[in-house]
Amino acid sequence: MGPRGLAYAKDINGETLGKILQYLSTRGSDQIIGFEETLLAGLAPDGGLYVPAEWPAVWNGPDTRRLSYAEDAARLMEPFVNGEIDSAALNAITRDAYSEFQHKDVAPLVEIGDGHWLLELFHGPTLSFKDFALQVLSRLFDHVLQRKGERLTVIGATSGDTGSAAIAACQGRANLDIFVLHPLGLISDVQRRQMTSVVAENVHNIAIEGTFDDCQRLVKAMFNDRAFRYDLALAAINSINWARILAQVVYYHVAASRLNDWPPTFAVPTGNFGDVYAGYVAHRTGLPVKRLIVATNRNDILTQSLTTGKHWLGDVTPTITPSMDIQVASNFERLLFEIYDRNGVEISRRMEALGSDGGFTIEAERLNKARTLFTGIAIDETLTLAEMGRVHAETGLLIDPHTAVGVAAARTFVTTENGPVISLATADPAKFPDSVERATGRRPKTPERLAEALVSDEHCDVLPRDLNTLQAYIRSRSRVGT
Ligand SMILES: *Cc1c(COP(=O)(O)O)cnc(C)c1O
């Protein structure tokens, strides 16, 4: 064992081959593990999130432009999976994952103003950026499980884009069964049909007679039931999984490599802090970044935290950007870990305060470290709709409301002195046709993939909000242990 977090790989003669990147928890336990274990575990046993023990340098400048998106993805991810998944397998995984995307650039850049670019992240199977991570995550799972001869039961609750992206990614995978809960009658038709139109033996949609909070409580209760968790080898699909973050780091590097001018600023519509944290990781792995704009809607705990240091939970208000209607931004813990100099004990204490007191305050000296890179900007619904109208009037493009939150926040920053700005376009406008029409008078064209989902038969069972009934349902359908 080398310094904390670095193991040295040895060949059969005991010669040291090189360093292997390892992972540790944000809550300070001493456990240090490799990539595969991090992938399968999701959350650390001490309740923390896994982060790499060090940051490998992976930015190679514009030279990488000659690579395809999938090739660059494998190149960028390789140091993080060091040794555990070989290069050929990793390349096959990214090639296969991104072959499902319907644009030759996978993540095209479109200029919407002088030095202001949109990074279109919605050309995947379910039309949101969530496909970038989940298409890779499901294949990584399958690859690792295949080798171990094991299976997993993936469970999750959804009120938005994660459920459909996870189902699309897991459908038909030999070693995975997926169960997704949504609140009966409480999600949009488009979102429900994107999930329930999928026909695959390993995909199970469950409408719970209750709210989204009931769904989340049931998922948590299943994870807390140790016997059930181990019998069924439960795995989670939310963005606390390090591999999801890793896959998202790629498009920051790829987008920047296509510019002729650095360092760029990125504007990121934010809910759970996963996507913008991936931008932070891109920066830590060598990408020159001028600023990361954390764009929030009126559920603005992150903007408050970055402006005043006060990280206190409020009530969630529903908005036209439902995927950002979040107060508990899980991945923020990973940034706190850095600004507290990787002191897991300090992080544990603050996360306990979040649970018991509803929040904590970040000291000024710590906050200043975050503020050297991050700016929080909250955008209300009036501004969001106005931005959709403005982009349409100026460029003819329709943008989705989540994207508009980021673009509106970016406007406050675009000047020639500040260099290029890249706004992340996180969903296809066709996923939110009513808001788009309200803002622009135009109804977005329904892409073929979505049109099919909208007329297909639906496959979904309705269950009461009862843990025993749900567990019996899952036990009888999961292939784990069979
Ligand atoms: C999930 C989602 C977001 C928020 O991303 P986080 O990683 O949770 O910050 C923004 N826009 C859309 C369309 C999403 O689906």
Describe what you observe in this structure.
There is one protein chain. By secondary structure, the chain is of the alpha/beta class. It has helices at residues 35-41, 69-77, 87-98, 130-148, 161-170, 189-196, 212-224, 226-231, 242-257, 274-284, 301-308, 332-339, 344-356, 364-371, 381-395, 401-411, 433-440, 448-455, 467-477; strands at residues 6-10, 16-21, 23-25, 32-33, 50-52, 109-113, 116-120, 152-157, 176-183, 203-209, 234-236, 265-269, 291-296, 310-312, 359-361, 374-378, 421-425, 461-464. The longest helix is centred in the first third of the chain and has 19 residues, at 130-148. Pyridoxal-5'-phosphate binds at residues 128, 130, 160-161, 239, 269-275, 323-324, 402, 426-427.
Helix and strand arrangement:
Blueprint: E1 6-10, E2 16-21, E3 23-25, E4 32-33, H1 35-41, E5 50-52, H2 69-77, H3 87-98, E6 109-113, E7 116-120, H4 130-148, E8 152-157, H5 161-170, E9 176-183, H6 189-196, E10 203-209, H7 212-224, H8 226-231, E11 234-236, H9 242-257, E12 265-269, H10 274-284, E13 291-296, H11 301-308, E14 310-312, H12 332-339, H13 344-356, E15 359-361, H14 364-371, E16 374-378, H15 381-395, H16 401-411, E17 421-425, H17 433-440, H18 448-455, E18 461-464, H19 467-477
Parallel strand pairs: 7-17, 8-9, 8-11, 9-10, 10-18, 12-13, 12-17, 13-16
Antiparallel strand pairs: 1-2, 3-4, 3-5, 6-7, 14-15
Pyridoxal-5'-phosphate binds at residues 128, 130, 160-161, 239, 269-275, 323-324, 402, 426-427.
